[in-house]
Amino acid sequence: MGSTEIVFAHTVLALIDKVKEYIRYDIGVYGASMTGKTTLDKQLTTPGLIRPLGENQRTHHKIKALSSSHRMPNSSAKRLVSKGRKKTVISRDIGGHEEYQYMWLKDMYQRKIKAVVVVIDHRHLLDEDNTDNQVALGYLVEALASKKPPKSLGMWTRFKRRNYRPDKIIILANKADEWLQTDKDWDMWEHGLIANHPIFDVFREHLFLLQEMSIPVHIDAVSAIRNFNVQETLMKAMGVTE
Ligand SMILES: Nc1nc2c(ncn2[C@@H]2O[C@H](COP(=O)(O)OP(=O)(O)OP(=O)(O)O)[C@@H](O)[C@H]2O)c(=O)[nH]1
Ligand SMILES: [Mg+2]
Description:
CATH class: Alpha Beta
Bound molecules: guanosine-5'-triphosphate, magnesium ion
Structural class: alpha/beta
Strand content: 15-25%
Largest sheet: 6 strands, mixed
Strand order of the largest sheet: 2-3-1-4-5-6
Number of helices: 10
Distance between the termini: 29 Å
CATH architecture: 3-Layer(aba) Sandwich
Order of helices and strands: HEHEEHEHHHEHHHEH
Number of domains: 1
């Protein structure tokens, strides 16, 4: 190949990379209430210092007029940057309270999202009777495993669900500024072994189920409020960076 052809090939590859940056990649961000989904949404929209959200700032959704379902929040585009690569992802911020869980499925099936991002925190390490995170992941995994869609989803969503499966599940163990503390924890994280951390033990059964369904799972520690490892994890999990 001559030098002109090489330069041309490089230009074409650079152009393809640039176009890929703008191809929308739909992600769905779900998880129990108070795990940090809104904080993550804000961090992805405008990276920086995020104001801690108070008790009165939980995400809620209004019931639609003449209907029993809730109004879906708008989705928005976020530009992710990591290791010199960029990617546009689309997501929306849905509440984590139990009455909104069906909206996670609605969002997932209607947008046919590519990556399900499950936000968890360390509450089950602080109180072993607390199962909020397990219930949230369980709800999603069981919906994916089930042959029958919940009737509450409506005809159109149930139709869109046919043959759908996300490409991957990304589990973000948020609030790492609080639970990733000891030298042993950091050592695990630095060596890429964070999936072995006890914070993930309670999820093993559902992780096995996902593996058996051939859905790859990417696990990592992040802090949405501190902007620690957030974009890096998502970009890696989406296969944009190594
Ligand atoms: N320490 C710490 N706190 C965080 C982090 N991310 C979020 N929080 C706090 O956790 C609380 C809940 O955050 P939200 O973002 O409102 O949680 P949510 O998942 O959107 O909650 P719902 O809207 O009820 O579903 C807030 O007080 C946040 O300031 C983090 O990385 N570290
Ligand atoms: Mg919220």
